[in-house]
Amino acid sequence: MPKYIPPKANRGIIDDPLWLYRHLIRQARALYDDVARTWYTGHIRRRFEENREPPSSQRTVQLIREARHGVTQLAKANAGVTKSLAKVLESGYGRVGKRRHDLLKPILVHGKPVVKGDDPRLALPFTSEPFRALLVWADVKNINVKIPETNIWNQPFPKVREPRKLQLAHAKLVKVCPAPLPMDEYERLKRFVNGKEMPKPSRRKVELQLVTKIRSGEVPVDPELGRPHDMTPRSWRRMWQRVLAQTPALHFNAEGKKWEVISTDTRPDMPDGKLEEFDVTVDEESTQKSICK
Questions:
Q1: Three-class SS of residue 167?
Q2: Quick one: which H or E segment has residue 244?
Q3: 207 with 262: CB under 8 angstroms?
Q4: Greatest extent of the chain over all pairs of C-alpha atoms, in Å
Q5: Could you read off the pLDDT of 168-208 as tens digits, one per residue?
Q6: E strand or H helix at 5, and its extent?
Q7: Angle formed by the axes of helices 183-194 and 233-245, to 10°?
Q8: Dihedral sign for Cα atoms in the order 68, 69, 71, 76
Q9: Using an 8 Å Cβ cutoff, are 88 and 39 in contact?
Q10: Alpha-helical segments (H) within the chain
Q11: Cα(280)–Cα(288) distance, rounded to whole angstroms?
Q12: How far apart are CA 171 and CA 182, in angstroms?
């Protein structure tokens, strides 16, 4: 294993990889949302297993820096810091990060023909039907890329450049394409938002020391990330509602023989009934002032 060179700055977290691994697992197991808890725990284990033998000392320093950042981010999420908690939930539900790529992989290769001996530099990108359906749902423009007839010198556009131009355009589409959740997770997320179900509680009952320090202000938090919150069921429903608003699910319509994107309108429903049935108080004086203006 390459010689370990510690980072120049010490931000209060020990740089021992085993120590960082244990604290990452502890923070991940303390997450309130069991979907994010399960994914983060497995993701941390896979990352440490894959990087058991880093190729260089520089890579070792980079991995330890990322692990230190992960400990503080999970601790802030457990303390109820708004932006950190939103980032953790979005990663756990596949809106960003590693899980998003894992959810998109089977979508991108669905129905793709197998071509042996094809040069990847000259291969044309493949747009599957479910991938196109997700792009249409996300209102992505310029799905069909047009090759220009001439270049900047008014010469015919070279054929050898067409694959690369299409590949770059396809990469941009993949970057903005939302990843669909599995149907069971999507339905469960909807029940979370509606308050019909709550996550399975964590086995850890005692708050972690770093989380307590963040709540008490002993460990400072960037004001742009928000402040620590005591999360209530209503607060959790709002966080899940934010995730659900950007989360689709895919369903194959056997009758129409096409892929359909399932999404939900997360805006609050208006109560049923007539206007006269509700207690509405109108300030006549302020109303008259606004009319005069």
A1: helix
A2: helix 233-245
A3: no
A4: 80
A5: 999 999 999 999 999 999 999 999 999 999 999 898 888 99
A6: none
A7: 140
A8: positive
A9: no
A10: 17-29, 34-50, 57-78, 82-92, 98-108, 129-137, 162-176, 183-194, 209-216, 233-245, 284-292
A11: 17
A12: 23
